[in-house]
Each structure stands twice: as structure tokens, then as C-alpha cells.
Amino acid sequence: MNPVLRFLLRPRFEDILRVDPESKPKVYLQIFDGADISNVNYWLELFLSAGIATLGLVLSSPAVVIGAMLVSPLMGPIIGSGLAFAAADLYLGIKSAIQLAISIVGSILFAGTLVWLLPLDTATPEILARTRPNLLDLGVALFSGLAGSLLVSRSCSPTGGGTSALPGVAIAVALMPPLCTVGFGLGSSFDTEIMGGAMLLFLTNLAAIVASAFVVFSVLRMDAPEVRLGIAQPLLERASKDSIYHFLESKTAISRSFANIGKLRWRVAMLALTLGAVLYPLSKSLIQLANEAVARDAVQRAVKLITQDDPDSVVTQQSNVLGDTIRVSLIVTNAVDNERVADAERMILMRTGREARLSVRRVTGEEEFERLREGLMAQPAAAAARPTDLTVLQADLLARVQRPLDELWPSSRACLLSYEIGFTPAGLVVRVSYEADQSLDDGALEVLQRGLESQLGVDEVVLRAFNESAPLEK
Fold first, then answer.
1. Angle at CA of residue 116, ends 110 and 118, nearest 5°
2. Which residue, 199, 230, 262, sits at the end of a domain?
3. What is the pTM of this model?
4. Among 246, 457, 446, which Cα is nearest to 465's?
5. Contact of 320 with 358, CB cutoff 8 Å
6. How many domains does the chain have?
7. Same domain, yes or no: 137 and 12
8. Is residue 340 part of a domain?
9. Tens digits of per-residue pLDDT, 192-241?
10. What CA–CA distance (Å, rounded) separates 279 from 122?
11. For 376-425, what is each residue's pLDDT tens digit?
12. Is 86 in contact with 222 (CB distance < 8 Å)?
């Protein structure tokens, strides 16, 4: 930056943001002290926060997860890393990096151990919500980092630092829950999809906060000579007892190399490369999220088009996106015109650019519904007390069939596309459609059939499986 422009702008920002120049050495020392690896209180708060967050995620309790965010001290070393970049402080940067690395590994291992000891290992909505980060999460982290850095920089000013807003920043950025989600994936079944998505979210938050802190502290001239002069003696006293400082002092090659790396353009380039590394997967995730939203909206419109005479006729509805094809399976109580089905498929194609395949099955008669319910309900007395209502029947069917089918399905060998349910005098009928390079053999289908009979509590399940990828017989 031009020296004249720097002179005109940077002091003015200090005045606008009401940061007292005399308080900046105090802020620097406050952040420096927060990067103390030997601070027992820091580690106590860290593991307490990890425990609270892990239990909150497993219980799917947003309130408990928010409590963990408030306890978490992770913001300290991350802000310290941003200040180290802004002031080209190798000592502070290494201290913050070591503290942060130990915190990350420790939190993941602690959460993983806790999940391994718990009998609950099912991914809850709170866990799944942290496995698909996108560009919006990057925006939240950037704004949160700017807010947190600004509040910290004003914490020692006579005008007040607005520290009452710091809990809000901690909640907004959510550093601990993603790490504990990684631990959940590690401790439950080594789910790489959950672990990868949650780690990407944490790295996104980390990079964005460091970059935001760098911008704020650079604008506020935390690297100014008067600030360095004010912290020189206190830092020397603190460093005299620190083995990290003595190690760096003895390694002149490290100090000499950092003299080049520490130039402003290299620091900016390092941060830009870090943000760029997470930008691509976040952009891809956002596009996928938008496409899914468009597909869901198109499917809902298609269902309304098919059942416009009687929207309450839908008993079950299932949709899957497989490549460039959207498959929708409906079970309805009224007759459906084939022309409407074709119109609905064309509408989905027009709105999403993907081919649509709609499967509509009509189930008639209250007696069939009642028999189906009696076959699926574990407590017949409770079922008899309920009125025959299609909405209740739909919920019962989805809750009692879909979950065991998903659990028992051999997903490593075949992709489940859709399923249909019926009831005949022979018993419960489950018709499944799937795609696989090779059709499932009789042994796999028998295991699936017996498992469904056991979990559903019925005497016999008639299982009919169709491989949609299999070539048609001539």
C-alpha cells in the first residue's frame, strides 16, 4: 500500500472503530497470553466443551450444542494466529499453531472415545447438519471472524469493547461441534463421509476466522512500531520461561527464512491459497444444495399436478436423485390419469434439466389399509383404538417399514431406488427397485426377507426385488 494512503486510512479506521491506540499493547498481550499451552483452565474448558458438544450431537439437542459453543475456548488460538499473520510474529504464530493442533486432535479423540463408549451411534439431524458445508458457511465464518476480532481489539479500550456480544460470535461460528462430529464418525463406524464433511466445515471456519482477524489487525496497525515497543519488555519476560522461544532463538535459519515469508505479500498469498483450497468444494456443495432444492420443489409440484383433484389421496411418496434421473414413487388411493403423469415428468425435466421417472401405484379399499396396519402394528389393541385415517397410516408405514429396510439393505452391492408396500392374503408384500451391476442372489434376498419379518414382527413377508439396470429379456 502507498505510504501516504496508509497514513491517511489506517489511523482513520482506528478513530471510526473507537480503538484506543494506547490499549493496543494490552490487547496484543491479552491475545498472546491466550496462546499459553500450559494454561490448565484452557484445556479444562476445551474438554468440557467437547463432552457437552458430543452429547448434544448424539441427543440431537440444539440447546446443548449451543452451550458447548459458549464454553469452547478455541477462538483464542485462532485469533492469535490471525494476529501473528498481521504482525509477522513467528513466536506467537508457532505458539498458536501448536495449541490449535493439540486442541483439534485432542477434541476429536475425546469425542471419538466418548461415542465409542456410548450405546448410541446413529447419526442424528444435528450431526448430519454439519457434514455438508457450503459457501454460505464460509460467509458466516468470515463475518463472525470480523466481529470477534473487532470485539477483542476493543476489549481494553476505555470506551468498552462490547464483550457482551462475544457469546453471539461463539455461537455463530460453531468451532467445537464440527470437531466432535469428526469424533463421532471416528468412534461410531469410521464413517469417512461424516468425518470428511465435518472436517471441511471446521477448516472453513478456521481459515475464514484467521483471514478476518488478519484484516482487522492489519487495518488497526497492530504491527506498528509503538505497539512493538510497548510489548517488547513484557513479551521478553514471558518468553524467558518458554522452551519454544529458546528453540526459535537458537535456530537462526528459521528466523532468517521467516524474514522473507513474513513479508506482507507472502502472508496475503498464504491466506488466499488457504481460502482458495476450500472454495472449490464449498462452491460444489452449494450448487448441489441448490439443485436438490430445485428438484424437491419440482417433485412437489409434480405430485400436486398428478393429484390435483384430491391432494389427500397420497399415501406414501418417495423420491431419489440418481445421476441425471429423478425417480418418484407414489402410492395413492384414487385413479390417476396417465396424461397427468406424463405432464408431471415433462414439468420436472423442464424445471431441473433431469429426466424424470414417476411410478404411481393405486391402492383401493379401507379393508386393505386396515389389514396392512394390523400386519405392521406391534400392538394391535392400540391400533384398534385409532381411527382409520390415511395420514396416520402413511406415518405408520414409513416409520415401520422404511427404517428396517434401510438398515438391512446391502448398500455395498446395490443402490436402493424405491419401494412399494401392499397386503394380500399371502401376507405383507414389499416390492423394491434397485440398480446394481449384478442382480442380488437368492441368498441375499432371503437374508433381507427374514430380517424384515423379524424386525416388523409379521409371520411372512413376500419380497419382490427388481434390478432396473438388468437388460430386458427378449
1. 105
2. 262
3. 0.68
4. 446
5. no
6. 2
7. yes
8. yes
9. 889 999 999 999 999 999 999 999 988 888 888 888 888 888 877 777 77
10. 30
11. 454 444 434 444 455 556 556 656 777 778 778 887 778 888 777 777 66
12. yes
Residues 347 and 214 in one domain: no
Instruction: Dig out the grid coordinates for 448 from the structure.
Output: 433381507
Whether 136 is in a domain gets the answer yes
* N-term to C-term CA, the chain: 75
382 and 241 share one domain: no
For residue 459, tell me if it sits in a domain: yes
Q: What is the 3-state secondary structure (H, E, C) of 136-163?
A: HHHHHHHHHHHHHHHHHHCCCCCCCCCH
Burial of 50 (0-12, 13-18, 19+ CB in 10 A): buried
With respect to residue 292, please indicate whether it lies within any of the assigned structural domains. Answer: no
Integer Cα distance of 371 and 373 in angstroms? 5
pLDDT value at residue 387:
44
The domain containing residue 446 runs over which residues? 312-467
Query: Among the three residues 240, 262, 284, which one is the final residue of a domain in this structure?
Result: 262
Walking along the chain (474 residues) 10 residues at a time, the average pLDDT comes out as: 50 70 85 87 94 94 91 91 88 90 96 91 87 90 89 72 63 88 91 91 93 90 83 78 71 52 73 87 86 84 79 71 76 76 85 82 63 50 44 60 78 78 73 83 79 76 82 46
Going by their DSSP bridges, the two strands 355-362 and 427-435 should be labelled as unpaired
State whether 242 and 132 are in the same domain: yes
Gap between the Cα atoms of 402 and 308, Å rounded: 27
Q: Provide the pLDDT for residue 386.
A: 43
- Single-letter amino acid, residue 318: Q
201: its cell numbers = 466445515
Specify whether the CB–CB gap between 268 and 293 falls below 8 A.
no
pLDDT, residue 45, reads 93
Query: Is 375 in the same domain as 439?
Result: yes
Q: How many CB atoms within 10 Å of residue 156? A: 19
Do both 188 and 319 map to the same domain? Answer: no
> Which residues, listed in sequence order, are joined to residue 316 by a DSSP beta bridge?
331
